[in-house]
Amino acid sequence: MAWKRWRIEEVIHYPGSQEVEKYVYTPGIHGLELAKALREGRVLGMKCPDGVYVPPKTYCPDGSPGELVEVRGPWRVVTYTLVHQDIYGNPLPEPEALALIRPDDADYGGLIHRVRAESIYIGMEVKPRWKPPKQRSGQITDIEYFEPA
Amino acid sequence: MGVHTYVAAAHPNIVVAPPTSVGRILMRRVAIVGAGWAGFRPQVPELSFRELVYEAASRAYEEAGVDPRSDVDAFVSCQEDYWEGIAIADEFAPEPLGAVLRPTYTVAGDGLQGLAQAFMMIRSGAFDVVVVEAHAKPSDIVTLDGIYELALDPLHVRPLRPGNPLFTAGLDAVAYMARTGASRLHLAMVAAANKRMGLSNPRAPHAARVTVDDVLESPTYIYPMSQLEVAPFTDAAVVMVLASDEAARRLTDAPVWLDGVGWATEVGTGAVEFHEWGRMPSIRAAALMAYQMAGVDSPASQTGFAEVEDRFSFMELLALEELGVAGEGEAAAMLERGDLAPGAFYPVNQSGGSLSVGVPLEATGLWRALEAYLELRDNSGAYDQPRAVVASWRGPPTYTSAVAVLSAV
Q: Could you give the angle at the alpha carbon of B270 between the alpha carbons of B353 and B151, nearest 5°?
C-alpha cells in the first residue's frame, strides 16, 4: 500500500554536535594592550580622527589607525536593558541588568557590562567594581560589574 | 524631501554615493517571475532542510514555467554553516534546486542579500534567469542559544555570558524609546496589530487574536519587551525566480519588478560597542542605495506599502524612520493615527510580520520580499502606487540590513 499511516514517534533524528569549544582567540595589537591594562585596573580607548572610541580595536571605523589612550571616566549609562528570560523564554534566576557604559572622556562606544544597582537609567553615573588584582586575567570580566558612583 | 537630504541630515557617517555612479548601471530591468515557499511552521518534523528547499523550488519553477535544468542560468543559495550544523554546507545547495553542474553561488547572509546578488548578476548582462534560495530549520538546532552566544565578540562581550545573547535588542529598544518618546504602549500596539494581521496569512503560525493588554501583561523577555513582542523561530524555505526584462516578458504577462536593492553593515559585531544605539544606520544606507536605483525620493508617497523588520516590536517603528517612511521620531504617531493599518495611508506588515510568521533565520529577508511579491502579484489594484518597500535586518548581534523596492508597474 502506497499510503502509510504516519506518526511523529516514527521520526528519527540523527544527533550531532560541533567542536565549538576548542578555539583560542588572538586579542591582536590593541586587544593585548587592553588586556594588560585591565590587569592593572585601567581601561584604554583609541583616538581616531573624529574622537575617542572605547574599546580600542587597532583601526578606527573610518579605516585609519587608532592611537591608544587611557580613559578614566567618570562612566555613564548610555543605554541599558534587563534580561528576564533566556532565548527559549525560561526565566533567569534574577533579571540581569546589562548596559553600554561610556566614560565621559570618550566620544563613541564604551563597555558592555553588567550593572548592579537598585535602579538604572540613561545618564546614570557608575563606576567599575574591579576584581582583586591577583584574580585578574586580562579579560573584560576583570571588572565584576559596574555600580552607582 | 530628497533621499540625499534625509540620509545626510541624520547620519553624517553614511557616505552618499553620487547618483551618477548608480545611474550608469541602469541597464536592464529585473523581474520576479515566480516564487515558491515551504514550511512556515515552528517545526517541520517530516522534511529535511534539503526537502524543504526542493518543495519551495518545485513550486517556484511551476509558477515561473521554467525547467531548472535548461531555463535557469545560475543559482544563489543563502545559508550559514552554523545554522545547518554542517561544515561547508554550501555543497548541499545544488541538488534540491536542480542546479547540479550549473553555476551556483553562496551568500553567507540573509536571503535579501542573495536577491541583491541575483539582481546584479542579471543587470550585468551575464545571466538572464537566476534563482535565489534561502532556508532555515531552527527546530533542528538543539543549542540555538549557543550559536548566538558564539556570534558575540569573543574578546569583549562573550566572556560576560549574558543570560540571553539577544540582549543587544533591549539596549537598542531603550535608547530608541528615550530618543523618540515612543512608549511601551506603542511597542505593544505593534505586536498586537501584527499578530492579528497574520491570522489571514497561511505562513503565520505565531498569529493570534491578542490585545494590547495581553501583550503588556505577558512576562518580560528582554526589557522593555514582553514575550509577545519578540518573534519566535520558524522552519521555512523560500525560492524566487528572477529574470531580465526580455526573459520576463517571455515567461509572464504580469511580472513584478525588482527596481532597487541595497545592503549595508554598520560596525560589525567585532566592534558592537561603536553602534549608534537606538538607530539602525544600516537600514538607512541600504534604503538610500535601493531608492536611488528605483528612483524613489519619498517612499511614503511613491510606494504603496511595506514589509519591514519587526522581529522585536520596536524595530518596526525604528525601521520606518530609518526608511524615511516616517519622519525622525514620528513612527509612533503614525501608528496611533492608524496610518499603518491595511487600507490606510501606508499599510505596514500586512502579512503579520515576523511577529506572526516568525524568524526563519537567513530566509527572513527573502520571505519579507515574498510577501510583497505576492501582494503586488495578486492585489496591486488596491494601491495608488503599486510599489513596495521591503526591509530586513539580519538580527542580533549583527548590524547588517538589506532593502528592496518592488513594483507591479
A: 55
In a domain, A57, yes or no: yes
List Cα–Cα distances, A70 to A15, A30, A111, B298, in angstroms.
Answer: 49, 12, 14, 45
**How many structural domains comprise chain A?**
1
Look at residue A140 and tell me if it is in a domain.
yes
Q: Would you call B212 an interface residue with chain A, using a CB distance cutoff of 8 Å?
A: no
Average pLDDT over residues B74-98: 94
Residue A3 lies in a domain: no
B172 CB within 8 Å of a chain A CB: yes
In eight-state DSSP terms, residue A90 is: P
pLDDT band at A12 (very low <50, low <70, confident <90, very high): confident
**Pairwise CA distance, residues A106 & A75, whole Å:** 10
Question: Is it the case that residue B130 has pLDDT exceeding 70?
Answer: yes
Contact between B166 and B394 under an 8 Å Cβ cutoff? The reply is no
CB pairs under 8 A between A and B: 124
Cell of A41: 585596573
Taking a C-beta distance cutoff of 8 angstroms, is the pair B134, B115 a contact? Answer: no
A15 in a domain, yes or no?
no
Instruction: Choose among B312, B403, B303, B317: nearest CA to B345.
Output: B303
Residues of B in contact with A81 (CB under 8 A): 167, 169-171, 173-174, 222-224
pLDDT given at position A11: 73
Task: Kindly report the backbone phi and psi dihedral angles of residue A109, in degrees, each rounded to the nearest multiple of 5, phi listed first.
Answer: 70, -150
φ/ψ bin of B295: left (φ > 0), alpha (ψ from -120 to 50), beta (otherwise): left
Helices (H) and strands (E) in chain A, counts: 1, 9
Is B394 exposed, middle or buried, given 0-12, 13-18 or 19+ CB atoms closer than 10 A? buried
Q: Which CATH number do you get for residue A80?
A: 2.40.50.140
B223 interfacial to chain A (CB closer than 8 Å): yes
pLDDT over 70 at B60, yes or no: yes
Q: Output the CA angle A98-A100-A103, nearest 5 degrees.
A: 130
* Residue B290: predicted pLDDT: 97
Each residue's pLDDT tens digit, B267-288: 877 899 999 999 999 999 999 9
Q: Find all residues with CB under 8 Å of A104, minimum gap 6, and list them.
A: A73, A74, A75, A76
- The string of pLDDT tens digits covering residues A65-83 is 999 999 999 999 999 999 9
Grid cell digits, residue B66: 521554467
Average pLDDT, chain B: 93
- Domain of A29 in residue numbering reads as 25-148
Q: Is A89 in contact with B227 (Cβ distance < 8 A)? A: yes
pLDDT band (50, 70, 90) for residue B24: very low
Residue of B117, B114, B119 whose CA lies nearest to B80: B114
Alpha helix (H) ranges present in B152-211? 168-180, 184-197
ipTM: 0.93
Asked whether the beta carbons of residue A109 and residue B221 sit closer than 8 angstroms, the reply is no
Share of chain B above pLDDT 90, in %: 91
